[in-house]
Amino acid sequence: MIAQVSGRLAAKQADRVMIETPGGVGYEIVVPLGVMERLPAVGEAVSLATELVVREDGWSLYGFSADAERHFFQRLIGVTGVGPRIAIALMSALGLERGVRAVRDRNIALLASVSGIGKKTAERLALELADKLGEFEEAAAASAAPRRGEGGEGGEGGGAAEAALHALERLGYATAEADRALRQVLAADGGGRGARGGDTETLVRRALQLLTNG
Asked: How far, CA to CA in Å, does 156 sit from each of 121, 146, 147?
């Protein structure tokens, strides 16, 4: 299993990054929205905790800022009917702290609001995982602490990108299209500090420009 990839951040795309190791091997890694937000500029050093998912149609590598996020992802994809895409969507929309809390509290409405998760899948997540997430409480609480540079609603348990996603949802945009627009904003400035250092208002404004321009 590939549990960690370290090296130079070679590229950022809408839903994935490429990390080039010192040996010259480039790994393409799919990441949640919150991880994309916290990445350094292209060209800088980076290290991600990773999970390799092997399926009949191919191998995919998923990356996270911390082991706790990777372990939560492992728990999610262990639930019947929950694949990597749904797990990443949940982590992008809710983050670690809110995601753990939603499952633990059996908040079916919140879980079902995530793109790709219907009521039955939300109920299955709560049924299978609600009593098995004690290990994440400390890590989730740490992720809820405000981080420098966050704005808007970051105190709800996520960074500026997560707060921006919630704001776009309240404006009537579907979670999937709002997530896609925010990823494009975060990846667009891959050569510099870019949106990573921006606040919620800036991210919402730039995402709206993409959404309204089709």
From this structure: 24, 9, 12
Which helix or strand (DSSP H or E) is residue 4 part of? strand 4-12
What residues make up the domain containing 106?
A: 67-144
User: For the chain, what is the domain count?
Assistant: 1
What predicted TM-score, i.e. pTM, was given to this entire model?
0.80
Please give the backbone phi and psi of residue 109, each rounded to the nearest 5 degrees, phi first: -60, -45
Within a domain: residue 17?
no
Q: What angle do CA 68, 121, 69 make, to 5 degrees?
A: 10
Q: Is residue 129 part of a domain?
A: yes
Establish if 98 belongs to a structural domain: yes
48-102 pLDDT tens trace: 999 999 988 889 999 999 999 999 999 999 999 999 999 999 999 898 999 999 9
Does residue 12 belong to any structural domain of this protein? no
